[in-house]
Design a protein that fits this description.
Elements (H helix, E strand, L loop, with lengths): L21 H15 L6 H10 L3 E2 L4 E2 L4 E2 L5 E3 L4 E2 L4 E3 L4 E3 L4 E2 L4 E3 L1 E3 L8 E3 L2 E3 L4 E2 L4 E2 L4 E2 L4 E2 L4 E2 L7 E4 L4 E5 L5
Parallel strand pairs: 1-4, 2-5, 3-6, 4-7, 5-8, 6-9, 7-12, 8-13, 9-14, 12-15, 13-16, 14-17, 16-18
Antiparallel strand pairs: 10-11, 18-19
C-alpha cells in the first residue's frame, strides 16, 4: 500500500492563466448565467455576446438554452454548429467546433482534469477539437486533449478519453470503436 496521500492544501494552479482580467471573468459569469445557462431561447443575442467576449463564431450557430461556457475567448465555432440543451463547455483550454459538428443535450466538453499521481493534485488542461461533421451524443463526455475526428460519432453517455478516428462510431466508457459511420444522401 502506498504511503503518500493526496494533500489538497498544497494544490496550486498559479501557473494557469484564464486569459482575461478578473473583472471580465466576473462580467462573463453573469452574462453566461442570464443568457446562456438559462431559459433564454434566442440565438442572435447569444452569438453577439460570444463574439463580444472574444469567441470566433461562424454562420448559423444554434445554441439551445441552459448551456454553460467557461471562457468564450477560448472558443472557436465554425459554420452551422448545433449545441444542445444543458451542454457544458468547460474550456480551460481552447475548444474548436468545426463546421457542421453537433454537441447534443447534456454533453460535457471538459478541458481540465487533475493529476491523481501527484500529492498536489495538479491541474491538467488540454484542448478539444470536434472536426467537421463530428457528433457528440447526448450526455456524452469528451476529456482533455481529445480530437473527435471528422464525421465520427460518440454515442449517448459514452466517454472519449482518447482521440476518435474519422467516420467511426464510438461507444462506452472508455469509448471503443463500434463500427464505421455510413452517411447517405
Amino acid at each position: 500500500m502506498p504511503e503518500l496521500k493526496t494533500d489538497l492544501s498544497s494544490f496550486n494552479n498559479d501557473w494557469y492563466n484564464p486569459g482575461r482580467s478578473t473583472v471580465v471573468r466576473i462580467v462573463w459569469y453573469f452574462i453566461n448565467s442570464f443568457f446562456f445557462n438559462s431559459w433564454f431561447p434566442f440565438y442572435g443575442p447569444k452569438r453577439f455576446l460570444l463574439k463580444l467576449f472574444g469567441a470566433k463564431i461562424g454562420q448559423g450557430l444554434v445554441i439551445k438554452p441552459y448551456v454553460s461556457i467557461k471562457y468564450p475567448w477560448k472558443l472557436v465555432i465554425e459554420d452551422h454548429v448545433w449545441i444542445g440543451e444543458k451542454v457544458w463547455i468547460d474550456n480551460l483550454a481552447k475548444v474548436t467546433l468545426k463546421s457542421n459538428s453537433c454537441v447534443s443535450q447534456g454533453a460535457l466538453l471538459l478541458c481540465g482534469n487533475h493529476n491523481y499521481r501527484k500529492t498536489t493534485f495538479d491541474l491538467i488542461v488540454g484542448e478539444i477539437t470536434l472536426e467537421e461533421g463530428a457528433w457528440v451524443g447526448a450526455m456524452a463526455t469528451v476529456c482533455p486533449g481529445v480530437r473527435v475526428g471528422s464525421h465520427s460519432l460518440l454515442t449517448v453517455g459514452s466517454v472519449a478519453t482518447k482521440s476518435l478516428e474519422a467516420y467511426w462510431i464510438y461507444q462506452g466508457n472508455p469509448a471503443q470503436k463500434l463500427k464505421i459511420r455510413e452517411i447517405k444522401a
